[in-house]
Amino acid sequence: MKPTALAAAFLALLLMSTPSARAQPSPAQTAAVAPSERQLELARQLVNASGIDATMTTAFRTMAQQMSASAGAGLSPERQARLKVFSDAEGDALAKLVPKLEQSMEAGYAQTFTEKELSDMLAFYRSPSGRSMVSKTPQFMQGLTAEMISLAPQMRRDIGTEVCAKITCTAAQRAAYFGPAAANGGPAGASPAPQPPAP
Length: 199
Prior knowledge:
single chain; mainly alpha; disordered N terminus; disordered C terminus
């Protein structure tokens, strides 16, 4: 899996792991009643109290570091250095998206939940358990990131098994899913480590 693909998969999983991901309004909801000013304000407070900005920023940068270390195994020092530059740049670019993601979350919360629901959620985040969750979430996401990276080769093989059961995969497709040995019909071995873009 190339770094950009892994970043997209990680971002999707990160958003799915937060309540705000499920707060995104459907087109029908958006066309319905607009949220009140109180809902919008509670939504802003809720996003701020959840600490999602620090969580996502830390997670994106951790992802870049762990991916660089994993993909760089066996590469020459020069290629490792180039991969680190690329991964760090990707982490920086993703981190810059956080403010926009926060705005989307605020809109989603305000459009989806009532004032009482937003007040109740905000009360939780301000409680001892809520504050503990906020402080521990970055550590949780670091572990989740490492797990996703370690699962990437198996995920690629599983996807390849499903795809190639439905279509006749080309040699290039088999190599991408199962490794070079499988390109010409050989056994499906461990997938190669993610490689950096060609210099």
